[in-house]
């Protein structure tokens, strides 16, 4: 039931069928892909133009306007301190996407390097690295987060650290499996026969074939990253208040759920929109460009 | 089977040991002073030093690791700073609540996920199949804590169908079950999605095999073929998936226990983080990690027992 990646070379998209326009059209032709793109664009634009889209201050309190229901002035209502929830949700998108971008890049690059070493290097190193990846994956994520944050205190970098530890082994394992199957491919054997050293074969001949599937994997991992970030700030382990993060907005709403349901609803909404959007997009990307990455097919 | 079992158990022990070594080493190499973070800014230098000595943080990593393992094999995971009771005892007291939560979460996943997956596979390509596909993906995508809060809002606050807090009266099974419905749904809903997809995919694979065609040629009813012959084979990969699922449900349980104010290991550890009860946090991480490794081990052994082909994979 592990991913059948042995023929990954054949499944890797070539430049011809992933031309930008063709690719986008293919994504939009699938209803799920189109919805995914729409939701993702919504979140990204909201994060970029947060300052333009709203005139409220995300941390500006107005105690006379506590728990207002959604309305024309406050699209999602206000929280227990009278802060505009729509504004806080928009600024929260910046935190979510920043963590997603930074943590995914680190996991991507780290997984690429460690996976290639495991897949191409000597057998003992491979066994050792596999063991390390398995050990890392055996920590339940939230437990790992609780343990690390007790020691370093809550911060954005603690969130990034937890996300990297939780996701890097996944990338590394895919890269390892692909590298092993590419190791015996004819073009790699040919390069070796011509006397190319490992330091040339790995980056020049093997790596380009890994990037495509890995990008799709990364796009599917983004909802996981967003979930970890929101979950950690929900538990008070992420960015510190008053900086708005989706998880802390949700936690504020949860604490005052007896006063008003709106803040809790407003806090959950962006998490639902973002995780669904990125998941739909990632699933469609994989189905269209690399169906062999499917874990369950 | 015996060879596979021994190898697989050895691997599990190795993974657990390595995970714990990594945890202890990380604690040592983390920048900053854990004593300062844990005791807060008001602690005097003497107090910090006393804490370091008490926790063994003044020793070298190697000594800490050997010391930890020699204690851990006797079941000594340290002492709760607040109650001065053994950590193992504190965690063991809370464990039944979390185990019940996870078991019911798996119950939801199996009860809803397997029929959904079967149904989708039998009507491949139909509208129902596509709707189930989108539903499954959505259930997987949305985090459990959002589901917990939304279901709390809807079913408890708005409709008043279920109680909002606690685990129910001790001894009153009906009450305890009513308290379990929503938290376990929040924990298990994502796995309904995973299971539905997994069952659908492996059903489709099994249905193309020769013995199924044979059964059809004999004129067996489609329902008999699906449930008696195909599902039996198709269910094997889901066993492994559920083993992995337990690990994720441990994470989900933390949120469910907080949102529904239930007792449990997740709640215990969360409270320990707030009160900076360091031995309970570390002990809890170790126990849950070992439990997770044990679950994947059991799942792999069951799969190998059911399907001899798995045994050659190690």
Give the SSE map:
The complex is a heterodimer of chains A (297) and B (314).
Chain A lengths: L7 H4 L8 H10 L1 H18 L1 H4 L31 H36 L2 H15 L3 H12 L3 H28 L2 H8 L4 H37 L11 H10 L6 H28 L8
Helix pairs in contact in A: 3-5, 3-12, 5-6, 5-8, 5-10, 5-12, 6-8, 7-8, 8-10, 9-10, 10-11, 10-12, 11-12
Chain B lengths: L1 H28 L4 H6 L5 H11 L5 H12 L14 H36 L4 H15 L2 H15 L14 H35 L2 H8 L4 H13 L1 H24 L5 H10 L3 H29 L1 H4 L3
Helix pairs in contact in B: 1-13, 5-6, 5-8, 5-11, 5-13, 6-8, 7-8, 7-11, 8-10, 8-11, 11-12, 11-13, 12-13
Describe the fold and architecture.
The complex is a heterodimer of chains A (about 300) and B (about 325). The longest helix of chain A is centred in the last third of the chain and has 37 residues, at about 200-235. With about 300 residues, chain A is mainly alpha-helical. Chain A contains twelve helices and no strands. Chain A is about 70% helix and about 0% strand. With about 325 residues, chain B is mainly α. Chain B is built from 14 helices and no strands. Chain B has helices spanning about 1-30, 35-40, 45-55, 60-70, 85-120, 125-140, 145-160, 175-205, 210-215, 220-235, 235-260, 265-275, 280-305, 310. Chain B is globular and about 80 Å long. At the A-B interface, helix 6, helix 7, helix 10, helix 11 and helix 12 of A face helix 1, helix 2, helix 6, helix 7 and helix 8 of B.
**Count of strand segments of chain A:** 0
Low-confidence stretches of chain B: none
Q: Give the integer mean of the pLDDT values of chain A.
A: 82
Q: Strand content of the residues of chain B, in percent?
A: under 5%
- What helical percentage do the residues of chain B reach? over 70%
- What is the tally of helical segments of chain B? 14
Radius of gyration of chain B: 23 Å
What is the overall silhouette of chain B?
globular
Kindly name the structural category of chain A.
mainly alpha
Could you say which structural class the secondary elements and strand pairing of chain B correspond to? mainly alpha
> Which quaternary structure do these chains form?
heterodimer
Q: What about the largest sheet of chain B?
A: none
Give the helix level of chain A as a range of percent: over 70%
What is the H-and-E element order of chain A? Answer: HHHHHHHHHHHH
Mean pLDDT of chain B: 83
User: Biggest interface and which pair forms it?
Assistant: A-B, 51 and 64 residues
The whole-angstrom Rg of chain A is 22 Å
- What gross morphology of chain A would you assign? elongated
Query: Strand percentage of chain A, roughly?
Result: under 5%
């Amino acid at each position: 039931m592990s991913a059948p990646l042995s023929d990954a070379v054949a499944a890797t998209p070539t430049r011809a069928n992933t031309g930008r326009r063709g690719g986008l059209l293919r994504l939009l032709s699938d209803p799920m892909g189109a919805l995914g793109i729409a939701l993702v664009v919504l979140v990204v634009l909201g994060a970029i133009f947060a300052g333009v889209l709203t005139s409220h201050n995300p941390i500006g309190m107005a105690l006379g306007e506590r728990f207002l229901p959604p309305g024309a002035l406050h699209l999602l209502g206000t929280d227990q301190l009278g802060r505009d929830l729509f504004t806080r949700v928009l600024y929260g998108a910046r935190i979510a996407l920043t963590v997603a971008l930074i943590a995914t890049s680190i996991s991507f690059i780290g997984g690429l390097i460690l996976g290639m070493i495991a897949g191409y290097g000597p057998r003992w190193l491979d066994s050792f690295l596999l063991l390390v990846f398995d050990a890392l994956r055996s920590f339940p994520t939230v437990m790992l987060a609780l343990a690390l944050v007790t020691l370093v205190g809550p911060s954005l970098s603690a969130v990034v650290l937890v996300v990297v530890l939780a996701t890097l082994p996944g990338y590394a394992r895919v890269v390892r499996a692909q590298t092993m199957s590419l190791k015996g491919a004819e073009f790699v054997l040919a390069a070796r026969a011509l006397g190319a050293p490992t330091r040339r074969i790995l980056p020049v001949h093997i790596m380009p074939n890994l990037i495509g599937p890995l990008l799709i994997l990364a796009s599917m991992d983004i909802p996981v990253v967003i979930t970890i970030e929101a979950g950690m700030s929900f538990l008070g382990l992420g960015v510190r208040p008053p900086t708005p993060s989706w998880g802390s907005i949700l936690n504020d709403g949860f604490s005052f759920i007896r006063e008003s349901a709106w803040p809790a609803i407003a806090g959950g909404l962006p998490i639902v929109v973002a995780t669904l959007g990125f998941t739909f997009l990632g699933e469609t990307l994989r189905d269209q460009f690399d169906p062999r990455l499917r874990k369950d097919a | 089977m015996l060879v596979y079992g021994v190898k697989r158990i050895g691997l599990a022990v190795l993974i657990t040991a390595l995970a714990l070594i990594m945890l202890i080493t990380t604690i040592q190499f983390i920048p900053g002073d854990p004593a300062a973070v844990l005791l807060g800014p008001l602690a005097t230098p003497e107090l910090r030093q006393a804490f370091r000595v008490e926790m063994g943080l003044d020793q070298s990593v190697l000594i800490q690791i050997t010391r930890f393992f020699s204690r851990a094999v006797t079941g000594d995971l340290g002492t709760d700073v607040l109650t001065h009771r053994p950590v193992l005892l504190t965690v063991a007291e809370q464990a039944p609540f979390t185990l019940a939560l996870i078991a019911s979460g798996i119950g939801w996943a199996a009860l809803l996920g397997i029929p959904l997956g079967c149904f989708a596979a039998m009507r491949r390509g139909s509208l129902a199949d596509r709707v189930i596909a989108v539903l499954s993906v959505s259930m997987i995508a949305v985090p459990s804590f959002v589901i917990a809060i939304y279901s709390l809002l809807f079913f408890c606050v708005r409709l008043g169908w279920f109680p909002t807090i606690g685990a129910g009266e001790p001894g009153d099974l009906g009450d305890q079950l009513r308290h379990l419905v929503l938290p376990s749904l929040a924990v298990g809903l994502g796995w309904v999605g995973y299971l539905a997809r997994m069952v659908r995919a492996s059903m489709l694979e099994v249905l193309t095999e020769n013995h199924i065609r044979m059964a059809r040629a004999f004129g067996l009813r489609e329902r008999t073929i699906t449930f008696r012959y195909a599902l039996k084979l198709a269910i094997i990969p889901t066993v492994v998936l559920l083993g992995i699922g337990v690990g994720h449900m441990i994470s989900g349980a933390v949120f469910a226990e907080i949102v529904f104010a239930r007792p449990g290991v997740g709640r215990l550890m969360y409270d320990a983080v707030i009160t900076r009860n360091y031995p309970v946090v570390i002990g809890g991480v170790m126990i849950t990690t070992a439990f997770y490794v044990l679950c994947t081990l059991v799942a792999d052994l069951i799969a190998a027992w059911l399907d001899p082909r798995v045994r050659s994979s190690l």
